[in-house]
Amino acid sequence: QDVPFTKIGDAMARGTCHASGATPMRALVATVVAVGPSERLAAAAEALQTLGDAGTVRGILISEGDNAAPPARVAGNTVALHGLKPSYFNNAVAALRLSSLPTLVWWRGGRVDTLDGLAGLADRIVLDYDRPATASSEDTADPIWSRAAMLFDDCAFSDLRWARLTQWRALMAHFFDIPEVLAAAEDFSRLTIAASD
User: Fold this and answer.
1) Are 61 and 83 in contact (CB under 8 A)?
2) Neighbouring residues of 169: CB distance < 8 A, sequence distance ≥ 6
């Protein structure tokens, strides 16, 4: 159901657009905000709608655009703002989140400066983006993590790419379980890994 921004709370309270037809639970446990380019929000929309239908979280989807006041689409406990101007992301999240409960931002990419306004409103930002191609394999600086590092005092950050490396990191750690390698561990002072993202 498309509603004006000022009527989002009323539409969610009525539950008139609850996708499953079930009565929404009144006790939500968190707000999950997915932000980024529209093409990267389809999977996030499905996940948030499932959580919203279960009555566990308030889901907020915000795609980038140039509209200062896009219509809001409400479905159960999920709100979508399509084409919102990035400078208004923090205002939208501040108005829609459940302020007394944890807020997690699922950052799917887009303008890196949107992290600044979101970090002050979120308990954690989970980075899930396609790393920009670098000019050369020697250029390893990631502008997203460079920006995130400046915001560590405001918010906790996680990166799904790091989580995807869990098996690889475990294998490297087990490498030192080999007695010969462990005995030579003091001789190691540097490890260089060359790979794609």
Assistant:
1) no
2) none
pLDDT tens digits, 12-40: 777 644 444 554 455 788 999 999 998 88
User: Can you spell out the DSSP letters for 124-177?
Assistant: EEEE--PPPPPSSTT----HHHHHHHTTTTT-EEEEHHHHHTHHHHHHHHHHTT
Burial label, 132 (beta-carbon count in 10 A; 0-12, 13-18, 19+): exposed
pLDDT in tens, 66-82: 999 888 988 878 899 99
Pairing of strands 57-67, 78-84: parallel
In the block, tokens 């929309």 appear at 45
Residue recorded with tokens 């093409």: 39
Q: Residue 10 and residue 16: Cα distance in Å, rounded?
A: 10
Q: Which amino acid is at 57?
A: V
The first and second tokens of residue 101, run together, are 């409960």
DSSP for the chain reads -EE-GGGHHHHHHHTTT-TT-SPPPS---EEEEEEE-GGGSHHHHHHHHHHHHTTSEEEEEEEEEEESSPPEEEETTEEEEEEE-GGGHHHHHHHHS-TTS-EEEEE-SS-TTHHHHHHTT-SEEEE--PPPPPSSTT----HHHHHHHTTTTT-EEEEHHHHHTHHHHHHHHHHTTSHHHHHTGGG----------
